[in-house]
Fold this protein.
Amino acid sequence: MMAVIQKHRADKPRAGKSTIGFVIVSSGIGGMETYLLRLLSRLPVGTRAVVFVRADAPGVLHSELAATGAVLIYGGLGNAHPLRLARLYWRLRAERLDAVVDLTGVFAGITLWVAWLAGIPRRIVFHRRSTYAFRETRARMAFTRFSIALVERFATAILANSRSALDRFHARLIGRDRRLGVIANIIDDADMQPLRPRAVVRTQLALPDDAIVLLHVGRVDPAKDHGTLLRAMVSAMKANPRLFAMLVGPGTDRLPASLAGLIPPDLHDRFRLLGNRTDIADLNHAADVFVFPSVTEGQPNALLEAMLCGLPVIASDIAPIREVVPARAHALLVAPGDAAGFAAAIHACVNDPAQADARRYRAEAQRITAPDTILPRLFSLILPDH
């Protein structure tokens, strides 16, 4: 059955010179959705934004997305069913778009093809991951290859937030197709300043004054490897009674039994399982060490935010993380899945100030994520006459 399209507008929608369409999976909490929220709030005055959401119903970020003045349209984008394609075609035509930016990566092919049929002059795919977000069955991979072929045929720009994504999905175009480009995530340094004093946040979380706090931010997902995270944290916490741990992100307040069972009963009171939070900057500044054992990423937004907050970071040795960590520090990265290696790095970081300082990369994060550097290049691709 074809999903019912729901259309939502803010109280004061933008009326403007250019109309840009964006395609996302949902309006829930995730890297793609957070990135779009930041981008919408920085569009030039006079730009009208229309957000096509594959999900059929609003998520928790709906109100914030709508508050930017964007139009949100839900449902009707799920597959290649002829009725859905027809509905998408007429919707794109009706919105009179100057550009469409599909943030769903390898699944953008059909949208960009229909946008081409609808006469939209600028058709951009923006990869937010560097690996596939699904189990690679024969049927799924066949569809994905078909979709990537459509992307390469109909996109006017093929963007990613990491070189790793372009290497993975468009290897045959590397070095010979000018449509390819890497555009980093935008994070305003000012957004990473705390709103509450560190001591207040720690008191509210019932953390002892002398606690050394380990922090991880990320949804419960195999890509984030919470198994390795918890094994490393538990090992380090057993050796150091001052260590406490905070886990933040969707699902962390209701860990599945396979993960919850990794926390011994005698350590339960030293874990803070916080779920979704909007005060990430405050939590970063309340913590002492950021631990990030992901096995796959696009560009690691949570890691960059921790770096901007000045936290020492212990991260996995994967290509997207190597892209954001200074080359001099690559030797400090830990092999993916190596819980003992992460535990040893935690031990070194909390016991040796020089080790902690060697893992602080604030200046690098500022250079990579500066909106004033990133946005002009992005807007030149998606906005007419910019």
